[in-house]
Amino acid sequence: MKGSCLCGEVRYDVVGQPRAVSACHCGQCRRQSGHFWSSAQVDLGGIEISGDVCWYASSAIAKRGFCATCGSFLFWKMGDEDAISFSLGTVDGATNLTLEKHIFTADKGDYYEISDGVPQF
Ligand SMILES: [Zn+2]
Ligand SMILES: [Zn+2]
After folding, report:
1. pTM exceeds 0.90
2. Which of 37, 39, 20, 22 has the alpha carbon at shortest distance from 109?
């Protein structure tokens, strides 16, 4: 699986097995993505990233990676955890993944409903 930002400066190759396919409705993901944010997680050794990624420390424990040129929101990483989440919206072509859960739904916007039957947390 490959992915890239809007301008193409940042590219990544996922060679590991993606897991935790989720849509996050928290206030931070909503602000950074403009809606809710869908992602999957891989081990750090399971992804190769090239290009200039800017990291924003959104809290004491997590940081958010975006393209320095076009601003596309690509990555989320928790502290020193040996894993990284990548944005499903930035995958080139088919992901062959299916959403497993909605998270932080208590913080979702009031302008949409979640009605796909996927478990909510
Ligand atoms: Zn870019
Ligand atoms: Zn979130």
Report:
1. yes
2. 37
